[in-house]
Write a structure and sequence with these properties.
Layout: H1 2-40, H2 49-84
Helix pairs in contact: 1-2
Length: about 90
């Protein structure tokens, strides 16, 4: 019984570790892209392109993490919502 409990706890810890690693990797990638944009700057006005790139990459990372953690629940929620809609 205690071995089963430790395996379950270990699996949870592994999933949390993978999620944390994915988030760190996404952040590191976003900073690398921003650094590249800064180095390529020629001094002219570029607007806020690197900021939007960071926002886009971080959003994609968050969506990926949420999809991985709660994909089944989100699919069930969507299916329930669609089945409750009635039309003419």
């Amino acid at each position: 019984m205690s071995r089963t409990k430790s395996l379950t706890t270990g699996a949870s810890a592994t999933a949390a570790s993978i999620t944390a690693t994915a988030a760190i990797s996404a952040t590191a990638f976003a900073y690398a892209v921003l650094d590249r944009f800064r180095r390529r700057s020629t001094g002219r006005e570029r607007g806020d392109v690197p900021g939007w790139v960071l926002i886009t990459l971080m959003t994609a990372g968050l969506v990926t993490i949420l999809w991985k953690l709660a994909g089944d629940q989100l699919a069930a929620l969507f299916t329930q919502a669609m089945s409750s809609v009635t039309g003419p």
